[in-house]
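#dry-run=false #mode=assembly
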Amino acid sequence: MSYTVVAEGIRKAFGGQVVLDGVDLALERGSVFGLLGPNGAGKTTLVRILATLVRPDSGRATVAGHDLLTDPVGVKGVISLTGQYAAVDDVLTGRENLEMMAGLLHLGRRAARARAAELLAEFDLTDAQDRRVKTYSGGMRRRLDLAASMIRRPELLFLDEPTTGLDPRSREQLWGTVRHLAAQDVTILLTTQYLEEADQLADTVGMLTAGRIVARGTPEELKSSLGTEIVRLRFPDARAYQAALAALTPSAPASSAFAPALGVPAVSVRTVAGAVVAGSGFTIEAADDGAFSIDIPTDGSSARLRDLLDLLVAAGGSTGAGSPRVSTHRPSLDDVFLALTDTALTDTALTGTAGTTPAPRPATRSEIAR
Amino acid sequence: MSSLTYDLVDSRIMVSRCLRRSWRDPEAFFTALMLPIILMMLFVYVFGGALRDHGPYVDYVVPGLIVLCAGFGAGTTAVALATDMAGGIVDRFRSMPIRASAILLGQVAASLTRNLLATALVIGVGLGIGWRPTTSVWHWAGAIGMIVLFILALSWLAAAVGLLAGGPEAANSFTFVLMFLPYVSTAFVPTDTMPSVLRGFAQNQPFTPIIETMRGLWMGHTSTGASLGHEALIAIAWSVGILAVSWLTATRLFRRSTSH
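#status=ok
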Protein backbone atom coordinates (compact mmCIF):
# COMPACT_ATOMS: atom_id res chain seq x y z
CA MET A 1 0.00 0.00 0.00
CA SER A 2 1.45 3.38 -0.86
CA TYR A 3 0.97 6.53 1.13
CA THR A 4 0.90 10.07 -0.17
CA VAL A 5 1.37 11.64 3.24
CA VAL A 6 3.25 10.21 6.17
CA ALA A 7 3.58 12.54 9.14
CA GLU A 8 4.94 11.79 12.58
CA GLY A 9 4.80 13.74 15.79
CA ILE A 10 3.92 17.11 14.27
CA ARG A 11 4.03 19.76 16.97
CA LYS A 12 3.43 23.46 16.74
CA ALA A 13 2.96 26.16 19.32
CA PHE A 14 2.33 29.85 18.76
CA GLY A 15 3.65 32.00 21.57
CA GLY A 16 3.41 29.27 24.18
CA GLN A 17 -0.05 28.19 23.04
CA VAL A 18 0.18 24.58 21.87
CA VAL A 19 -1.84 24.17 18.69
CA LEU A 20 -0.67 20.78 17.51
CA ASP A 21 0.53 18.33 20.10
CA GLY A 22 2.05 15.41 18.25
CA VAL A 23 -0.06 14.57 15.22
CA ASP A 24 0.57 11.39 13.25
CA LEU A 25 -1.01 10.92 9.86
CA ALA A 26 -0.86 8.40 7.05
CA LEU A 27 -2.92 9.15 3.96
CA GLU A 28 -3.31 6.36 1.48
CA ARG A 29 -2.76 7.26 -2.13
CA GLY A 30 -6.00 8.19 -3.86
CA SER A 31 -8.02 8.33 -0.66
CA VAL A 32 -10.04 11.15 0.83
CA PHE A 33 -9.10 11.89 4.42
CA GLY A 34 -11.53 14.00 6.40
CA LEU A 35 -10.02 16.03 9.19
CA LEU A 36 -12.73 17.00 11.64
CA GLY A 37 -12.51 19.24 14.59
CA PRO A 38 -14.06 22.20 16.34
CA ASN A 39 -12.86 25.73 15.67
CA GLY A 40 -9.37 26.24 17.00
CA ALA A 41 -8.57 22.53 17.08
CA GLY A 42 -5.58 23.06 14.80
CA LYS A 43 -7.02 21.86 11.48
CA THR A 44 -5.88 24.85 9.48
CA THR A 45 -2.47 24.86 11.15
CA LEU A 46 -1.97 21.23 10.19
CA VAL A 47 -2.94 22.02 6.60
CA ARG A 48 -0.61 25.02 6.53
CA ILE A 49 2.26 22.91 7.85
CA LEU A 50 1.75 20.18 5.27
CA ALA A 51 1.40 22.84 2.56
CA THR A 52 4.86 24.24 3.50
CA LEU A 53 3.44 27.57 4.70
CA VAL A 54 4.37 27.00 8.33
CA ARG A 55 7.31 25.12 9.78
CA PRO A 56 6.47 22.66 12.55
CA ASP A 57 8.37 23.00 15.83
CA SER A 58 9.12 19.31 15.70
CA GLY A 59 8.08 16.20 13.88
CA ARG A 60 8.60 15.17 10.29
CA ALA A 61 6.57 14.43 7.23
CA THR A 62 6.88 13.40 3.64
CA VAL A 63 4.47 14.30 0.88
CA ALA A 64 4.64 12.04 -2.17
CA GLY A 65 8.16 11.10 -1.13
CA HIS A 66 9.40 14.68 -0.68
CA ASP A 67 10.57 15.59 2.78
CA LEU A 68 8.64 18.56 4.11
CA LEU A 69 11.59 20.14 5.88
CA THR A 70 14.50 19.40 3.58
CA ASP A 71 12.70 19.60 0.24
CA PRO A 72 9.83 22.07 0.57
CA VAL A 73 10.14 23.06 -3.08
CA GLY A 74 9.63 19.43 -4.06
CA VAL A 75 6.51 19.35 -1.87
CA LYS A 76 5.18 22.57 -3.42
CA GLY A 77 5.54 20.87 -6.80
CA VAL A 78 3.08 18.09 -5.95
CA ILE A 79 0.41 19.83 -3.86
CA SER A 80 -2.46 22.20 -4.47
CA LEU A 81 -4.04 24.31 -1.78
CA THR A 82 -7.57 25.58 -1.83
CA GLY A 83 -8.17 27.85 1.07
CA GLN A 84 -10.95 28.58 3.42
CA TYR A 85 -11.53 31.87 1.66
CA ALA A 86 -11.38 30.94 -1.98
CA ALA A 87 -7.87 31.96 -2.92
CA VAL A 88 -8.52 33.60 -6.25
CA ASP A 89 -8.09 37.18 -7.40
CA ASP A 90 -11.51 38.77 -7.52
CA VAL A 91 -10.46 41.74 -9.63
CA LEU A 92 -9.38 39.41 -12.44
CA THR A 93 -11.75 37.37 -14.56
CA GLY A 94 -12.08 33.61 -14.12
CA ARG A 95 -10.06 33.00 -17.25
CA GLU A 96 -7.33 35.45 -16.22
CA ASN A 97 -7.07 33.77 -12.84
CA LEU A 98 -6.51 30.35 -14.38
CA GLU A 99 -4.10 31.67 -17.02
CA MET A 100 -2.13 33.46 -14.30
CA MET A 101 -1.88 30.34 -12.14
CA ALA A 102 -0.96 28.25 -15.18
CA GLY A 103 1.72 30.80 -16.05
CA LEU A 104 3.12 30.56 -12.53
CA LEU A 105 3.35 26.81 -13.02
CA HIS A 106 5.41 27.61 -16.13
CA LEU A 107 3.10 26.07 -18.66
CA GLY A 108 3.98 28.63 -21.31
CA ARG A 109 1.51 31.08 -22.75
CA ARG A 110 -0.23 28.91 -25.30
CA ALA A 111 -0.46 25.83 -23.08
CA ALA A 112 -1.71 28.03 -20.21
CA ARG A 113 -4.49 29.39 -22.38
CA ALA A 114 -5.51 25.93 -23.55
CA ARG A 115 -5.49 24.43 -20.07
CA ALA A 116 -7.52 27.33 -18.70
CA ALA A 117 -10.19 26.81 -21.37
CA GLU A 118 -10.30 23.08 -20.60
CA LEU A 119 -10.75 23.64 -16.89
CA LEU A 120 -13.37 26.36 -17.35
CA ALA A 121 -15.41 23.86 -19.34
CA GLU A 122 -14.80 21.03 -16.88
CA PHE A 123 -15.87 23.14 -13.92
CA ASP A 124 -18.85 24.63 -15.72
CA LEU A 125 -17.53 28.18 -15.77
CA THR A 126 -17.18 28.81 -19.49
CA ASP A 127 -20.14 31.20 -19.57
CA ALA A 128 -18.66 33.27 -16.78
CA GLN A 129 -15.04 33.13 -17.91
CA ASP A 130 -14.78 36.79 -18.87
CA ARG A 131 -16.57 38.16 -15.84
CA ARG A 132 -14.62 39.41 -12.88
CA VAL A 133 -14.60 36.93 -10.03
CA LYS A 134 -16.07 39.65 -7.81
CA THR A 135 -19.40 39.02 -9.57
CA TYR A 136 -19.31 35.24 -9.03
CA SER A 137 -21.55 33.40 -6.59
CA GLY A 138 -19.98 31.56 -3.65
CA GLY A 139 -20.28 28.23 -5.43
CA MET A 140 -18.68 29.58 -8.61
CA ARG A 141 -15.76 30.99 -6.64
CA ARG A 142 -15.12 27.63 -5.00
CA ARG A 143 -15.31 25.89 -8.35
CA LEU A 144 -12.80 28.34 -9.80
CA ASP A 145 -10.61 27.78 -6.76
CA LEU A 146 -10.75 24.03 -7.37
CA ALA A 147 -10.11 24.48 -11.07
CA ALA A 148 -7.00 26.49 -10.25
CA SER A 149 -5.85 23.61 -8.05
CA MET A 150 -6.20 21.18 -10.93
CA ILE A 151 -4.10 23.03 -13.51
CA ARG A 152 -1.64 20.23 -13.13
CA ARG A 153 -3.00 17.18 -11.37
CA PRO A 154 -1.61 17.34 -7.82
CA GLU A 155 -0.59 14.30 -5.80
CA LEU A 156 -2.18 15.89 -2.76
CA LEU A 157 -5.04 18.36 -2.76
CA PHE A 158 -5.90 20.33 0.35
CA LEU A 159 -9.54 21.33 0.69
CA ASP A 160 -9.73 23.57 3.70
CA GLU A 161 -13.41 23.89 4.61
CA PRO A 162 -14.47 23.89 0.97
CA THR A 163 -18.18 24.38 1.52
CA THR A 164 -18.24 26.77 4.47
CA GLY A 165 -20.83 29.41 3.70
CA LEU A 166 -22.33 27.69 0.67
CA ASP A 167 -26.04 27.05 0.18
CA PRO A 168 -27.16 23.41 0.17
CA ARG A 169 -27.42 23.16 -3.62
CA SER A 170 -23.90 24.55 -4.20
CA ARG A 171 -22.64 22.25 -1.48
CA GLU A 172 -24.11 19.19 -3.22
CA GLN A 173 -22.57 20.39 -6.47
CA LEU A 174 -19.18 20.86 -4.90
CA TRP A 175 -19.35 17.42 -3.33
CA GLY A 176 -19.91 16.02 -6.78
CA THR A 177 -16.83 17.86 -8.01
CA VAL A 178 -14.74 16.55 -5.13
CA ARG A 179 -15.83 12.97 -5.84
CA HIS A 180 -14.90 13.51 -9.45
CA LEU A 181 -11.41 14.65 -8.40
CA ALA A 182 -11.02 11.76 -5.97
CA ALA A 183 -11.82 9.40 -8.82
CA GLN A 184 -8.81 10.79 -10.69
CA ASP A 185 -6.49 9.26 -8.10
CA VAL A 186 -5.83 12.56 -6.33
CA THR A 187 -5.26 12.17 -2.60
CA ILE A 188 -7.42 14.66 -0.78
CA LEU A 189 -7.04 16.12 2.68
CA LEU A 190 -10.36 17.66 3.53
CA THR A 191 -10.96 19.73 6.62
CA THR A 192 -14.50 20.46 7.60
CA GLN A 193 -16.77 21.31 10.46
CA TYR A 194 -19.66 19.59 8.75
CA LEU A 195 -19.76 16.00 9.83
CA GLU A 196 -22.17 15.16 7.08
CA GLU A 197 -19.58 16.36 4.60
CA ALA A 198 -16.96 14.01 6.01
CA ASP A 199 -19.53 11.23 6.03
CA GLN A 200 -20.32 11.88 2.37
CA LEU A 201 -16.81 12.28 1.05
CA ALA A 202 -14.17 10.79 3.29
CA ASP A 203 -12.79 7.27 3.19
CA THR A 204 -11.10 7.84 6.52
CA VAL A 205 -11.84 10.38 9.18
CA GLY A 206 -9.61 11.78 11.88
CA MET A 207 -11.00 13.76 14.77
CA LEU A 208 -8.66 16.53 15.82
CA THR A 209 -9.26 18.06 19.20
CA ALA A 210 -6.96 20.28 21.18
CA GLY A 211 -4.04 19.49 18.91
CA ARG A 212 -4.35 15.72 18.95
CA ILE A 213 -6.07 13.20 16.75
CA VAL A 214 -8.32 11.53 19.27
CA ALA A 215 -10.01 9.06 16.95
CA ARG A 216 -9.60 7.81 13.44
CA GLY A 217 -11.20 5.25 11.19
CA THR A 218 -13.85 5.00 8.53
CA PRO A 219 -17.00 6.95 9.31
CA GLU A 220 -18.75 3.60 9.90
CA GLU A 221 -16.11 2.40 12.34
CA LEU A 222 -16.32 5.61 14.30
CA LYS A 223 -20.07 5.41 14.50
CA SER A 224 -20.01 1.79 15.69
CA SER A 225 -17.44 2.76 18.30
CA LEU A 226 -20.20 4.34 20.33
CA GLY A 227 -21.55 0.80 20.60
CA THR A 228 -25.21 1.62 20.39
CA GLU A 229 -28.04 1.56 17.98
CA ILE A 230 -31.05 3.70 18.61
CA VAL A 231 -34.43 2.02 18.32
CA ARG A 232 -37.20 4.45 17.62
CA LEU A 233 -40.73 3.37 18.53
CA ARG A 234 -43.62 5.31 17.08
CA PHE A 235 -47.07 4.82 18.51
CA PRO A 236 -50.37 5.33 16.74
CA ASP A 237 -51.90 7.63 19.35
CA ALA A 238 -51.43 9.31 22.72
CA ARG A 239 -52.97 6.46 24.61
CA ALA A 240 -50.58 3.84 23.28
CA TYR A 241 -47.71 6.25 23.77
CA GLN A 242 -48.59 6.87 27.41
CA ALA A 243 -49.03 3.19 28.07
CA ALA A 244 -45.67 2.42 26.56
CA LEU A 245 -44.02 5.14 28.61
CA ALA A 246 -45.60 3.76 31.70
CA ALA A 247 -44.41 0.26 30.85
CA LEU A 248 -40.88 1.40 30.28
CA THR A 249 -40.81 3.44 33.48
CA PRO A 250 -42.87 1.39 35.94
CA SER A 251 -41.34 2.84 39.09
CA ALA A 252 -41.84 6.48 38.15
CA PRO A 253 -45.41 7.63 38.06
CA ALA A 254 -46.05 8.28 34.41
CA SER A 255 -48.01 11.39 35.19
CA SER A 256 -45.12 13.49 36.47
CA ALA A 257 -42.51 13.45 33.75
CA PHE A 258 -44.08 11.87 30.74
CA ALA A 259 -47.77 12.42 30.77
CA PRO A 260 -48.68 15.83 29.55
CA ALA A 261 -52.29 16.39 28.67
CA LEU A 262 -53.39 15.51 25.19
CA GLY A 263 -53.07 18.22 22.64
CA VAL A 264 -49.98 19.90 24.04
CA PRO A 265 -47.69 21.26 21.37
CA ALA A 266 -44.94 18.93 20.22
CA VAL A 267 -42.00 19.09 22.57
CA SER A 268 -39.07 16.80 22.53
CA VAL A 269 -38.34 15.64 26.01
CA ARG A 270 -34.70 14.90 26.55
CA THR A 271 -34.38 12.67 29.52
CA VAL A 272 -31.32 10.56 29.71
CA ALA A 273 -29.86 10.59 33.15
CA GLY A 274 -32.06 9.05 35.80
CA ALA A 275 -34.48 7.46 33.42
CA VAL A 276 -32.91 4.05 33.72
CA VAL A 277 -35.47 2.09 35.50
CA ALA A 278 -35.13 -1.14 37.35
CA GLY A 279 -37.57 -3.66 36.01
CA SER A 280 -37.67 -2.69 32.39
CA GLY A 281 -33.88 -2.36 32.06
CA PHE A 282 -34.27 0.03 29.15
CA THR A 283 -33.19 3.61 28.96
CA ILE A 284 -35.31 6.24 27.35
CA GLU A 285 -33.05 8.57 25.46
CA ALA A 286 -35.73 10.81 24.06
CA ALA A 287 -39.50 10.91 24.01
CA ASP A 288 -41.49 13.11 21.72
CA ASP A 289 -44.97 13.94 22.98
CA GLY A 290 -46.03 15.36 19.64
CA ALA A 291 -44.92 12.54 17.40
CA PHE A 292 -45.66 9.83 20.02
CA SER A 293 -42.18 8.44 19.55
CA ILE A 294 -39.69 7.05 22.02
CA ASP A 295 -35.96 6.53 21.35
CA ILE A 296 -34.22 3.71 23.14
CA PRO A 297 -30.53 2.85 22.80
CA THR A 298 -29.80 -0.85 22.44
CA ASP A 299 -26.86 -3.01 21.49
CA GLY A 300 -28.51 -3.68 18.15
CA SER A 301 -29.16 -7.36 18.76
CA SER A 302 -32.47 -8.96 17.78
CA ALA A 303 -32.74 -10.54 21.22
CA ARG A 304 -32.73 -7.17 22.90
CA LEU A 305 -35.32 -5.84 20.45
CA ARG A 306 -37.53 -8.86 21.12
CA ASP A 307 -37.27 -8.22 24.88
CA LEU A 308 -38.35 -4.66 24.30
CA LEU A 309 -41.36 -5.60 22.19
CA ASP A 310 -42.38 -8.39 24.60
CA LEU A 311 -42.37 -5.87 27.41
CA LEU A 312 -44.60 -3.52 25.46
CA VAL A 313 -47.02 -6.26 24.36
CA ALA A 314 -47.35 -7.50 27.93
CA ALA A 315 -47.96 -4.04 29.32
CA GLY A 316 -49.92 -2.44 26.54
CA GLY A 317 -53.03 -4.55 26.60
CA SER A 318 -55.59 -3.11 24.23
CA THR A 319 -53.91 0.29 23.91
CA GLY A 320 -51.80 -0.41 20.87
CA ALA A 321 -48.61 0.07 22.86
CA GLY A 322 -47.61 -3.43 21.81
CA SER A 323 -47.60 -2.67 18.08
CA PRO A 324 -45.48 0.39 17.44
CA ARG A 325 -43.72 1.14 14.18
CA VAL A 326 -40.08 0.34 14.72
CA SER A 327 -37.09 1.95 13.08
CA THR A 328 -33.45 1.81 14.08
CA HIS A 329 -30.67 4.19 13.34
CA ARG A 330 -27.00 4.28 14.14
CA PRO A 331 -25.42 7.27 15.80
CA SER A 332 -24.35 10.01 13.42
CA LEU A 333 -20.81 11.32 13.21
CA ASP A 334 -22.16 14.25 15.18
CA ASP A 335 -22.80 11.96 18.13
CA VAL A 336 -19.29 10.54 17.91
CA PHE A 337 -17.85 13.98 17.55
CA LEU A 338 -19.66 15.36 20.56
CA ALA A 339 -18.79 12.35 22.69
CA LEU A 340 -15.11 12.60 21.80
CA THR A 341 -14.61 16.33 21.88
CA ASP A 342 -16.32 16.76 25.23
CA THR A 343 -14.00 14.47 27.13
CA ALA A 344 -10.88 15.56 25.28
CA LEU A 345 -11.58 19.22 26.02
CA THR A 346 -12.16 18.55 29.69
CA ASP A 347 -8.94 16.58 29.99
CA THR A 348 -6.81 19.25 28.35
CA ALA A 349 -8.35 21.99 30.38
CA LEU A 350 -7.30 20.16 33.51
CA THR A 351 -3.81 19.14 32.45
CA GLY A 352 -3.30 22.58 30.97
CA THR A 353 -3.81 24.13 34.37
CA ALA A 354 -1.40 21.62 35.84
CA GLY A 355 1.35 22.81 33.54
CA THR A 356 1.15 26.44 34.56
CA THR A 357 0.19 26.39 38.24
CA PRO A 358 2.41 24.43 40.58
CA ALA A 359 -0.15 24.77 43.37
CA PRO A 360 -1.53 21.52 44.82
CA ARG A 361 -4.83 20.42 43.33
CA PRO A 362 -7.08 17.39 43.42
CA ALA A 363 -6.14 14.53 41.13
CA THR A 364 -8.00 14.60 37.84
CA ARG A 365 -9.88 11.81 36.25
CA SER A 366 -7.21 11.19 33.61
CA GLU A 367 -4.53 10.93 36.28
CA ILE A 368 -6.47 8.39 38.25
CA ALA A 369 -6.97 6.45 35.06
CA ARG A 370 -3.22 6.31 34.61
CA MET B 1 14.43 27.05 -18.96
CA SER B 2 16.83 28.05 -16.23
CA SER B 3 15.66 28.98 -12.76
CA LEU B 4 16.57 32.61 -13.46
CA THR B 5 14.21 32.59 -16.43
CA TYR B 6 11.50 31.11 -14.20
CA ASP B 7 12.09 33.87 -11.64
CA LEU B 8 11.68 36.44 -14.39
CA VAL B 9 8.48 34.80 -15.63
CA ASP B 10 7.08 34.69 -12.07
CA SER B 11 7.92 38.34 -11.48
CA ARG B 12 6.48 39.40 -14.83
CA ILE B 13 3.21 37.63 -14.05
CA MET B 14 3.06 39.21 -10.61
CA VAL B 15 3.73 42.70 -11.97
CA SER B 16 1.09 42.34 -14.64
CA ARG B 17 -1.38 41.11 -12.04
CA CYS B 18 -0.75 44.14 -9.82
CA LEU B 19 -0.97 46.58 -12.73
CA ARG B 20 -4.18 44.99 -13.95
CA ARG B 21 -5.60 45.40 -10.47
CA SER B 22 -4.59 49.08 -10.49
CA TRP B 23 -6.21 49.88 -13.84
CA ARG B 24 -9.36 48.07 -12.83
CA ASP B 25 -9.95 50.06 -9.70
CA PRO B 26 -11.55 53.00 -11.51
CA GLU B 27 -11.80 55.20 -8.43
CA ALA B 28 -8.15 54.84 -7.48
CA PHE B 29 -7.02 55.09 -11.08
CA PHE B 30 -9.01 58.25 -11.67
CA THR B 31 -7.74 59.83 -8.45
CA ALA B 32 -4.17 58.92 -9.33
CA LEU B 33 -4.52 60.63 -12.70
CA MET B 34 -6.52 63.64 -11.58
CA LEU B 35 -4.50 64.38 -8.49
CA PRO B 36 -1.39 65.71 -10.27
CA ILE B 37 -3.50 67.82 -12.64
CA ILE B 38 -5.78 69.27 -9.98
CA LEU B 39 -2.95 69.99 -7.55
CA MET B 40 -0.93 71.68 -10.27
CA MET B 41 -3.85 73.95 -11.14
CA LEU B 42 -4.57 74.61 -7.49
CA PHE B 43 -1.05 75.54 -6.51
CA VAL B 44 -0.14 77.51 -9.63
CA TYR B 45 -3.38 79.42 -10.23
CA VAL B 46 -4.99 79.61 -6.79
CA PHE B 47 -2.07 79.95 -4.37
CA GLY B 48 0.68 80.75 -6.85
CA GLY B 49 -0.27 84.38 -7.46
CA ALA B 50 0.02 85.22 -3.77
CA LEU B 51 3.24 83.23 -3.37
CA ARG B 52 5.08 84.70 -6.34
CA ASP B 53 8.43 85.82 -5.11
CA HIS B 54 11.26 84.98 -7.46
CA GLY B 55 9.83 84.27 -10.88
CA PRO B 56 6.80 82.17 -11.85
CA TYR B 57 5.52 79.85 -9.08
CA VAL B 58 5.31 76.88 -11.42
CA ASP B 59 9.12 76.94 -11.64
CA TYR B 60 9.22 76.50 -7.89
CA VAL B 61 6.46 74.00 -7.30
CA VAL B 62 7.00 71.13 -9.78
CA PRO B 63 9.40 69.08 -7.59
CA GLY B 64 7.08 69.50 -4.60
CA LEU B 65 4.12 68.18 -6.56
CA ILE B 66 6.13 65.20 -7.79
CA VAL B 67 6.93 64.30 -4.20
CA LEU B 68 3.34 64.81 -3.09
CA CYS B 69 1.96 62.56 -5.82
CA ALA B 70 4.60 59.93 -5.10
CA GLY B 71 3.47 59.97 -1.48
CA PHE B 72 -0.10 59.38 -2.56
CA GLY B 73 1.05 56.56 -4.85
CA ALA B 74 2.99 54.91 -2.04
CA GLY B 75 -0.16 54.91 0.07
CA THR B 76 -1.94 53.06 -2.72
CA THR B 77 0.84 50.47 -2.74
CA ALA B 78 0.65 49.94 1.00
CA VAL B 79 -3.11 49.39 0.78
CA ALA B 80 -2.78 47.02 -2.19
CA LEU B 81 -0.25 44.84 -0.38
CA ALA B 82 -2.19 44.86 2.88
CA THR B 83 -5.30 43.80 0.94
CA ASP B 84 -3.41 40.90 -0.63
CA MET B 85 -2.04 39.76 2.70
CA ALA B 86 -5.51 39.83 4.25
CA GLY B 87 -6.94 37.53 1.55
CA GLY B 88 -6.05 33.95 0.78
CA ILE B 89 -4.26 34.45 -2.51
CA VAL B 90 -0.79 34.98 -1.06
CA ASP B 91 -1.07 31.59 0.67
CA ARG B 92 -1.93 30.00 -2.63
CA PHE B 93 1.04 31.65 -4.34
CA ARG B 94 3.31 30.51 -1.56
CA SER B 95 2.12 26.94 -1.78
CA MET B 96 3.13 26.94 -5.44
CA PRO B 97 6.71 26.28 -6.57
CA ILE B 98 7.46 29.95 -7.25
CA ARG B 99 9.94 32.36 -5.70
CA ALA B 100 8.13 34.03 -2.80
CA SER B 101 10.00 37.28 -3.41
CA ALA B 102 8.20 37.60 -6.75
CA ILE B 103 5.03 38.48 -4.81
CA LEU B 104 6.68 41.51 -3.18
CA LEU B 105 8.58 42.41 -6.32
CA GLY B 106 5.30 42.46 -8.23
CA GLN B 107 3.81 45.03 -5.87
CA VAL B 108 6.94 47.19 -5.80
CA ALA B 109 7.42 47.14 -9.57
CA ALA B 110 3.77 48.00 -10.11
CA SER B 111 4.13 50.83 -7.60
CA LEU B 112 7.18 52.13 -9.46
CA THR B 113 5.30 52.05 -12.76
CA ARG B 114 2.23 53.83 -11.39
CA ASN B 115 4.28 56.54 -9.71
CA LEU B 116 6.52 57.17 -12.68
CA LEU B 117 3.38 57.66 -14.77
CA ALA B 118 2.06 60.17 -12.24
CA THR B 119 5.44 61.94 -12.29
CA ALA B 120 5.38 62.11 -16.08
CA LEU B 121 1.92 63.62 -15.81
CA VAL B 122 3.10 66.30 -13.37
CA ILE B 123 6.02 67.16 -15.65
CA GLY B 124 3.79 67.17 -18.72
CA VAL B 125 1.17 69.43 -17.17
CA GLY B 126 3.89 71.67 -15.76
CA LEU B 127 5.47 72.10 -19.17
CA GLY B 128 2.02 72.71 -20.60
CA ILE B 129 1.30 75.65 -18.31
CA GLY B 130 4.62 77.37 -18.70
CA TRP B 131 7.23 75.57 -16.61
CA ARG B 132 10.58 76.20 -18.25
CA PRO B 133 13.51 74.32 -16.71
CA THR B 134 16.74 76.11 -17.61
CA THR B 135 18.83 73.04 -17.89
CA SER B 136 20.85 70.53 -19.91
CA VAL B 137 20.07 66.94 -20.91
CA TRP B 138 22.47 65.71 -18.23
CA HIS B 139 20.71 67.65 -15.54
CA TRP B 140 17.41 66.21 -16.74
CA ALA B 141 18.89 62.70 -16.54
CA GLY B 142 20.10 63.47 -13.03
CA ALA B 143 16.69 64.73 -11.94
CA ILE B 144 14.97 61.66 -13.35
CA GLY B 145 17.52 59.43 -11.65
CA MET B 146 16.74 61.19 -8.36
CA ILE B 147 13.00 60.63 -8.89
CA VAL B 148 13.44 56.95 -9.71
CA LEU B 149 15.61 56.36 -6.66
CA PHE B 150 13.21 58.25 -4.41
CA ILE B 151 10.12 56.45 -5.72
CA LEU B 152 11.85 53.09 -5.42
CA ALA B 153 12.68 53.85 -1.79
CA LEU B 154 9.13 55.03 -1.16
CA SER B 155 7.67 51.92 -2.81
CA TRP B 156 9.66 49.60 -0.58
CA LEU B 157 8.72 51.73 2.40
CA ALA B 158 5.10 51.32 1.34
CA ALA B 159 5.59 47.56 1.10
CA ALA B 160 7.00 47.49 4.63
CA VAL B 161 4.12 49.59 5.91
CA GLY B 162 1.58 47.45 4.05
CA LEU B 163 2.94 44.35 5.79
CA LEU B 164 3.22 46.06 9.16
CA ALA B 165 -0.27 47.57 9.06
CA GLY B 166 -2.11 44.27 9.35
CA GLY B 167 -5.05 45.45 7.25
CA PRO B 168 -6.01 47.73 4.37
CA GLU B 169 -7.66 50.33 6.61
CA ALA B 170 -4.59 50.79 8.77
CA ALA B 171 -2.37 50.88 5.69
CA ASN B 172 -4.53 53.66 4.30
CA SER B 173 -3.54 56.05 7.08
CA PHE B 174 -0.01 55.87 5.69
CA THR B 175 -1.28 57.78 2.64
CA PHE B 176 -2.34 60.58 4.91
CA VAL B 177 1.07 60.84 6.58
CA LEU B 178 2.90 60.86 3.28
CA MET B 179 0.58 63.46 1.79
CA PHE B 180 0.98 65.71 4.79
CA LEU B 181 4.77 65.58 5.13
CA PRO B 182 5.61 67.54 1.96
CA TYR B 183 3.73 70.57 3.31
CA VAL B 184 6.28 70.83 6.11
CA SER B 185 9.22 70.98 3.72
CA THR B 186 10.37 73.35 1.00
CA ALA B 187 7.87 71.76 -1.41
CA PHE B 188 5.44 74.69 -1.63
CA VAL B 189 6.95 77.57 0.30
CA PRO B 190 10.45 78.38 1.58
CA THR B 191 10.92 77.57 5.23
CA ASP B 192 11.98 81.09 6.34
CA THR B 193 8.59 82.14 7.61
CA MET B 194 7.89 78.97 9.63
CA PRO B 195 8.19 78.97 13.44
CA SER B 196 11.62 77.73 14.50
CA VAL B 197 10.63 74.22 15.61
CA LEU B 198 8.72 73.59 12.42
CA ARG B 199 11.54 75.14 10.38
CA GLY B 200 14.06 72.83 12.01
CA PHE B 201 11.91 69.85 11.06
CA ALA B 202 11.23 71.13 7.56
CA GLN B 203 14.89 71.72 6.81
CA ASN B 204 16.02 68.36 8.07
CA GLN B 205 13.33 65.97 6.90
CA PRO B 206 14.18 63.77 3.89
CA PHE B 207 11.73 65.36 1.45
CA THR B 208 13.51 68.73 1.54
CA PRO B 209 16.91 67.65 0.15
CA ILE B 210 15.19 65.44 -2.41
CA ILE B 211 13.03 68.34 -3.60
CA GLU B 212 15.99 70.73 -3.53
CA THR B 213 18.09 68.33 -5.59
CA MET B 214 15.45 68.26 -8.34
CA ARG B 215 15.05 72.01 -8.09
CA GLY B 216 18.79 72.57 -8.36
CA LEU B 217 19.11 70.25 -11.31
CA TRP B 218 16.18 71.79 -13.19
CA MET B 219 16.39 75.46 -12.27
CA GLY B 220 20.12 75.86 -11.68
CA HIS B 221 19.83 76.84 -8.02
CA THR B 222 18.28 75.44 -4.84
CA SER B 223 15.81 77.45 -2.77
CA THR B 224 17.67 76.91 0.48
CA GLY B 225 20.90 78.52 -0.63
CA ALA B 226 22.85 75.31 -0.03
CA SER B 227 24.87 73.98 -2.95
CA LEU B 228 23.33 71.41 -5.30
CA GLY B 229 26.09 68.93 -4.50
CA HIS B 230 25.40 69.22 -0.78
CA GLU B 231 21.64 68.71 -1.18
CA ALA B 232 22.14 65.84 -3.65
CA LEU B 233 24.45 64.02 -1.27
CA ILE B 234 21.95 64.24 1.59
CA ALA B 235 19.08 63.31 -0.74
CA ILE B 236 20.86 60.21 -2.00
CA ALA B 237 21.88 59.22 1.52
CA TRP B 238 18.26 59.50 2.72
CA SER B 239 16.89 57.61 -0.28
CA VAL B 240 19.41 54.79 -0.08
CA GLY B 241 18.93 54.62 3.69
CA ILE B 242 15.14 54.42 3.43
CA LEU B 243 15.46 51.91 0.60
CA ALA B 244 17.84 49.64 2.51
CA VAL B 245 15.91 49.71 5.80
CA SER B 246 12.54 49.29 4.08
CA TRP B 247 13.76 46.49 1.85
CA LEU B 248 15.19 44.59 4.80
CA THR B 249 12.09 45.19 6.91
CA ALA B 250 9.69 44.26 4.14
CA THR B 251 11.43 41.05 3.14
CA ARG B 252 11.79 39.97 6.77
CA LEU B 253 8.20 40.84 7.62
CA PHE B 254 7.00 39.05 4.53
CA ARG B 255 8.86 35.91 5.44
CA ARG B 256 7.62 36.09 9.01
CA SER B 257 4.01 37.00 8.35
CA THR B 258 3.74 34.12 5.92
CA SER B 259 5.34 31.49 8.10
CA HIS B 260 2.66 31.51 10.77
